[in-house]
Amino acid sequence: MPDPETRRLLGRLPFLGGVPDAALDRLAAIARPVRHDVGALLFRRGDPGEGLVVVVDGLVRIHLSTEAGRELTLGLIGPGEPLGEIALIDGGPRSADATALTPVRALLLRHADAARIIGEDAAVAAALLRTLAARLRRTTDQAEAVGLRSLPERVAMALLQLAAADPSGLVRLPQGQIAALVAATRPKVNAVLAEFRGRGLIEPVRAGLRLSDPAGLRGLAAGG
Fold this sequence. Notes:
Pfam families: cNMP_binding, HTH_Crp_2. The chain is α+β, with helices and mostly antiparallel strands. It has helices at 4-11, 21-30, 85-90, 111-120, 122-148, 151-165, 175-181, 186-198, 214-221, and strands spanning 32-36, 41-43, 51-57, 60-65, 71-77, 82-83, 97-100, 104-110, 170-171, 202-205, 208-211. A four-stranded antiparallel beta sheet has the order 1-8-3-6. Strands 2-7-4-5 form a four-stranded antiparallel beta sheet. The radius of gyration is 18 Å and the shape is elongated.
């Protein structure tokens, strides 16, 4: 019998919309709850693809790193979103690093168990294909943001994403990590944040940054 709480969590995930109850019951029966602290590495590029991770609470950064310490952020994964779906399909190694930006609560669907369900249920397979398509679109958007958008636009987008993923609506990441998210240096990001404070868009608080004017940030992120 699947755990009732796990079954409830899977049933409310947008990417599993349209999956029959019987298939959700099977997925819930194989899902294993996992937790990760801030800064924990969920997996590293080249690691064996253990399976699909579904974020229940928290925020995960998907990124590539070089031996010299340079990093490229590929995307942010928030509540209700899966990661590691490529490994679930082909059983290959992880294609990027995944780091917890906040405390993360997640469900792990191991490859050996989930692959059988995917092969037997067309609705589950279709849900996975939709996830892959959405991830490709987001990767394209990320490349566009880095290559075509100004730094203030990228910082505004990152602040909105980070605040949306935090239960209190705060941005708790250090400025160095925000800089890594937007592919910029810390001094340049510090200058943008100082400008945002001067314009009343954000406000420093003890636990991080509060978005004083989310609408203004959304307009800026949209190129306004």
